[in-house]
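SECTION: protein entry
WANTED: fold as C-alpha cells:
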Amino acid sequence: MSEVKVWDVFVRVFHWSLVICFGLNALVLDDESKWHQWVGYMVAGLVAFRILWGFFGTKHARFSDFPPSLSAALGQLRGMLTRPTSLHVGHTPLGALMIYNLIFTLLAICASGYLMTTDMFWGVEWPETVHEAAVHWAEISVVLHVAAVVFESLRTRVNLPRAMVTGYKRLP
C-alpha cells in the first residue's frame, strides 16, 4: 500500500468549512435570520476562493487535473460494472462532474439569495424560486456525493473520507 499526497490544506479546509456552512444554512439556521445571510456570504467567499484555487492551486486542486467529461464519466460507470477497480489519485471523472455541479449550484444559491436581499428584487418571486430549487438540488447532490464516496471507498478499498481529513490517499 502506498500513501500519496493528494489534497492540500486549502482544499481540505474549504471542503469541511463548506460542509459546516451548508449544513448550518440548510438544517439549523432560520431562513429569515441575519446569520443565514452571513453564512451564505461565507459560502460565496469559500466558493470564490475555490474557483481561484482551481486555476492557481496545487496539482490535484486545479481544474485542469479533472476536466469535466461525460464520456469519461460514462466510461467510469461502465468500468465499475465490467472491469477490475481502476484507481485515481485525484478526482475520478464522476467526482469531477459532481464538483462542477456543486460549484455551479452553490453559485446559483448564493446569487439568488443575495438578489432576495436587494431593493430591486425585494418581493420578486423568481429569485426565491431559483434559490429554493437550487438548495433542493444541492441537498440531493450532497446525498449522492456522500453515497458515492462510501460506495467507492468500499469498492476500491481506498478510505476517501480519511484522505479528505489527512490529505493523503492510501492506494493498494
